[in-house]
Amino acid sequence: MGLVLATADPGDIIKSAVSDGCAALDERQAKAVLAAYGVAVPEGGGARDENEAVSIARRVGFPVALKAVGPHISHKTERGLVVLGIQDEETVRAAARSLLERAGDPDASLLVERMLHGARELMVGMKRDPLFGPVVVFGIGGVFTEALKDISLGVTPLAQRDIDQMLAGIRSATLLGSFRGMPPVDHAALTAVILAVARIAEDHPAISEIDINPLIVEDATPVAADALMIVDPKPAGGRKATQEPGATSPDLPVPRPDLKPLFAPRSVTVIGASEDPLKWGGSLLHNLIDGGFAGPIYPVNRRGGTLCGLPAFQSVAELPEAPDLALVTLGATQVNAVVEQCGERGIPVALVVAADFSEAGEAGAAAEAQLAQTARTAGVTLIGPNCMGLVATHSRLNAVGFLELRPQAGRLSVVSQSGNIGVQLLSAAERRGIGIDKYVTVGNEASTSALDVIDALCDDPGTGAALVYLEGVDDGRRFVDVMRRTTRQKPVVVLRGGLTEYGRRAAASHTGAMAGAADVFLAAAHQTGCFVRTGPDESLDLALCLTALPLPRGRRVAIMTLGGGWGVLAADELARNDLELALLEPHVLAELDKLLPGYWSRSNPIDLVAEVGPDLAERTLTLLAESEAVDAVVVLGVLRSPSTGWTSDDDARVSAGRGTSVRERFNPAEIAFLECTNALMERTGKPIVNVPLRPLDVAIFPGGAQHDPVILYSPVAAVRALAAMAWYGEYVAAQDDPPPRRRGNEDPR
């Protein structure tokens, strides 16, 4: 392949265009930049008139393509400024005269190139997202690109795995392989094109958009048939669109707040404390006391005296020590002065529950900016405002107003931009027996964001997995950095709101959150190893599985079912999620023949054909879990069924004893089966998910070891959770020098 302007420095080309006030590089210039980065372009060159055009055509050989180009020429095809397949010199001359006349631009010139021959047309592009920075696009090219919209996205910087996922992520990925006698597309060359576009974007911030379309596959090599680069001397950056006064420059590292005093405070003060449980100051104080917080609690109330049996102090200055955490329950107009006083007293963290800030309009936004500035100046880490509080079960800290949240201690931490969503998640966790370590609401994120909390949880030994509710992010690059660092060590599930236009408007109406482009966010999340879900139940289920179960070593799943219908649904869902039905080994089939009637299916799913026996389910599960051909097992219909002796008496017992422990919600046969499940997971390192025959409001059985049996509500939910876990296991394994994966309830300290 010849190179257009091969010796030109791409930086000089771009600087010249910027200094000349051009909105874009012309095609000749754009291809020169691409060629300098190793992208194949057609042989050819630039011509000022018909004679030069003919000379170039002779050199490259017919047929040729002829185009009018220039700093002010765009949409060449629509304007009739492209002539393809020219076979002789006279046609070149006539076309050259016609194109220059039709261009109507004294600065117009001609681009003459050898015609490319290839049936497959791809496209690679780039656009700077205002939050995430350069985003590379790959997909099917040609004139139907916009109609087909068969594309995948990648946020820079791109690793090889990211590019592989982009190539496999389009619906028409089969076109990249051998197709109708055509050889497979050169994978290395196509990867190089994508990397070149990413490098151009990173090296030259003035380039705001790149469009290589079509990228024609000639034989096996992708060649840039057309190219466009948009120039913007002040492009979108990819850090916060706006910076508060005193905030860190977008080009500097983002400071990481110290959240240890928030996660595990030794002492707490409630500023604006009250004995009235119908007030924020009263409900928080009552919940701290009732929850059994072991450290000192210092109520602050201007009247002093005694509140809930504790001595109250008239001001922050009078406190006998500097508590680790201040819960500020006063009105919005009083908060700024109180945060300043916290700094003077040496209190490191202040959580502000007051509303009427940025969610209330311009005046509130100004007050919030001032509050954030005050906190920075005072050296106080600010949580909120407009948040509902936090829970830290291992510290016995319940600092949520008006609600008694008492989840059991566990390894899952929850972060939420919405107080009510967070409460819903914690209430569901408490009801279903899911263990929680920490719960933090961040409100308006005036100073400390949900990403800051996730970043801190990455290094928190008590957190095995994180579940975060997001309505938007205002710093896409930080999202990428934080998630990439965190997911190498522990999984993160994002419950995401604001992905649609309706949702974005709703989010802005109550939090002012910047939602960002949904497709770019989803691409960034996938690329950085975190899960995105849109429903609270599915999010909580997946987060639970990631904390309680071992990761599968592969995608081979055995389905053990009490009836055929559920096995069919589960098998269908396996196929939809790129999981495999494990092929049963001969010795496993032989052992199952001894256990089951002669008419059983002798295949996976393993239908127990409604057989009931004291140890049938346990023996069958043991065979499957111990098989070398199985990576995970789904058990359908054993719990809450005749196979474990469940009766109406058990229904009555559980119904009458809602306040009993989780273990007491099962009968002895179920407990034995679940203990067998737990022992198998410990011994084999394989995840086993149970789905009961009848509804069961328990999601986890306390196994008392490294892993805990998980109980989900449907075959579909079980398979989707396993598919996500398999994907995460592959993601972690693909990282360079992956850190140890911590699972279960062990204390990593």
Describe this structure in words.
Helix 3 packs across helix 4 and helix 20 runs parallel beside helix 22. With 749 residues, this protein is an alpha/beta fold. It has four domains: 105 residues, ATP-grasp fold, A domain (Dna Ligase, domain 1), CATH 3.30.1490.20; 112 residues, ATP-grasp fold, B domain (D-amino Acid Aminotransferase, Chain A, domain 1), CATH 3.30.470; 287 residues, 3-Layer(aba) Sandwich (Rossmann fold); 185 residues, Rossmann fold (3-Layer(aba) Sandwich), CATH 3.40.50. It contains 23 helices and 31 strands.
Mean pLDDT: 89
How many strands, what sense, and barrel or not for the largest sheet?
A: 7 strands, antiparallel
The structural domain count equals 4
Q: What is the structural class?
A: alpha/beta
Radius of gyration: 31 Å
Q: What's the CATH topology label of the largest domain? A: Rossmann fold
Give the topology.
Elements: H1 10-19, E1 24-25, H2 27-36, E2 44-47, H3 50-60, E3 64-69, E4 82-86, H4 89-103, E5 109-114, E6 120-129, E7 133-140, H5 145-148, E8 151-155, H6 160-168, H7 187-203, E9 207-218, E10 221-224, E11 227-231, H8 260-263, E12 268-271, H9 280-290, E13 297-300, E14 306-307, E15 310-311, E16 325-328, H10 332-345, E17 349-352, H11 362-378, E18 381-383, E19 389-392, E20 397-400, E21 409-416, H12 419-432, E22 436-441, H13 450-458, E23 465-470, H14 476-487, E24 492-496, H15 501-510, H16 518-527, E25 531-533, H17 536-548, E26 556-561, H18 564-576, E27 580-581, H19 586-595, E28 606-607, H20 616-625, E29 632-636, H21 648-656, H22 668-684, E30 688-691, E31 710-711, H23 715-734
Parallel strand pairs: 12-13, 12-16, 16-17, 17-18, 21-22, 21-23, 23-24, 24-25, 26-27, 26-28, 26-29, 29-30, 30-31
Antiparallel strand pairs: 1-11, 2-5, 3-4, 3-5, 6-7, 6-9, 7-8, 9-10, 9-11, 14-15, 19-20, 19-22
Helix pairs in contact: 3-4, 10-11, 13-14, 14-16, 17-23, 18-23, 19-20, 20-22
